[in-house]
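Intended use. Records like the one below are meant for learning the mapping from a protein sequence to its folded structure. Do not use them to infer anything beyond what is encoded.
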Amino acid sequence: MRRRRFHPQGAVLATLVVAWIAGRTPGAAQDTQDAGSIPPPRTTPAAGSPGPPAIAAKARDWWAFQPLRKPSPPARPAASAIDAFLDEAIDAASLKASPEADRPAWLRRATFDLTGLPPTPADLGRFLADTTPGAFERVVDRLLASPAHGEHWARQWLDVVRYADYHDADPAARNASCEPLEAWRYRDWVVGALNHDLPYRRFVGLQVAGDLEDDPMSAIATGFLVNGSWDRGDADKEKLVSDMVDDQIDTIGKAFLGLTLGCARCHDHKTDPVSTRDYYALAGMFYSTRILEELGTKGGEITLRRIPLVPAEVAAERDRHVARLEVLKGRLAALDRLRPPLATNHPSRLELLAERRALEASMPPAYPTALSAAEGGMPGGLFPNLQDVPVHVRGSYTRLGPVVSRGLPAFFAGANPGPVPKGSGRQELADWLSSADNPLTARVLVNRVWQGHFGAGLAPTPNHLGLGSEPPSHPALLDWLAAAFLEDGGSIKALHRRIMTSAAYRRSAVVTPAQAEVDPANRWLARFPRRRLPAESIRDALQEVSEGLDRFPGGPAAADLSVPRRSLYVQTARWDRGTFAALFDAANPDASVDRRDVSTVAPQALFLLNHPFVAQRAGALAERTSREAGPDPGARIRWLHRALFAREVRPAEMAVALDLLARLGGTDAGHAWRDYVHVLLCSNEFIHLD
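Structure written out for the chain above:
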């Protein structure tokens, strides 16, 4: 039996983490410098609130909870600070980094990574012709400026915030009162925020408390709080409200802090310094936040809160007309119930009918609305006001303990986490979440963006950086990036640019035998990780290469897979998992998803081989090939390889293609080209990224 050669990969990680911690221990040799104006967090726990003492003691030494400093990169030749950190770990693992990828492979990688779409043959030609310094940087800047950038990266954020366009996939079955019909406005807000490079502090703050600003566009951002996952028709309405609050706390913890705050609903957190009192200090903020107009009857549907996106006087005029019309309808209905019934030409009936027609003719047009949170509790509920709430023993509102002042988690927020001076407290929460004092928020965001480019975060569980998680592979690099991110004013585009202009991002994805044996999971990034495209990019690429993609942005989501729009605008319904997106491992909208699963199952191949949508795209692409490349088969084949794979066709591929087309052609050359194109669209290379 062959004995596998042991390589201490775990020891390399332990060495890096220990060295990073040692550099931060008081009295130890410091290999760090201050990150500009980044102050240390206040981590002194409030009396009686940070959870079990043993957990709090461990937490004080946990990497993610340490004050954020900017480590100095290793003193070694490297293309960038990122590469200095990575190369040090590669050397420590006795690995050799892969050479640089060829330019076509890098262009395809960068274009999909930043826009979710393939590069065009024209893009490829321009890039290959540009041999001047800064060519790679110019491509990155061009892609970051594309509207497609925000559409692609918005989908990654929407995974994290459990976004859905609707609950029910069937438009006829939707109840307008409780369906998030206007959720698309929040989705489009996210797209716009990313395209305009909204500073991350604002990006975070508006989603938690944007309604507190005198601007409906800011209030749209709180669709984050309204478009949650809960059982909307629950007969127990008080439990429904408590589940809504829990969903909001849990999602905020995972999305912004990398903490599983929801675990403290019923008991002190088992691994992190978050107590049940901390949980209900936060819960008071959301019990003091209104996201519903009304709870509805027992077993009935809720009514989501909506705000007008027009001036108040315009909305009021329409509302008055609607109210008067409802009164008239009620009076007509009362006449119809009279016994004996009134004649159809009775003067009273005719008068009411005339008044109704006049009112309908002068009715102002319906005004646009958006889902939005607001200050104040739920009328008719246990906590209808701006108020503190008691601990719910074992998480149940039927067993109430001591009242807890609204405030922030004591261990993380410092010695004085509350009480809230006024309002719900969401503004104070938003300020703390987005503050440079907070050691978690920047780390979490940087880790998510890194995962978007390399397939895995430096810390492997972006939604969970607490004590029960696996430490990062490169802790000093993660801190360096987080500190640089804050120095850049929270510019996410600057972070993309910094990562994508590194030598590590330009490495080949070819795996050497030594890399496969020593580092099969590619933790040290000696090579670029090959990965499958996400569901949305597969569909969008099929549309884009066949000229079937309408780039018109925004608006309500469509149900039809064949709609000529980006997949971001094809509906995500909470109750429908039988979609193309779900087949190719899209996120479950009922939960905050930090990293999608990637499966390889037979139905995926069957879809690509047999679904009418793919056959339609293959036919359209075959027609486009004829227009773009002319009648010569060789020219068509070369154009197809540039369009689908961003590379030149290889001689062996050319020979096989010409032979196949000759054998398939017969009397129907068009059919042969459709089949050949369909084969290329079903290839691994088309749906994978090197």
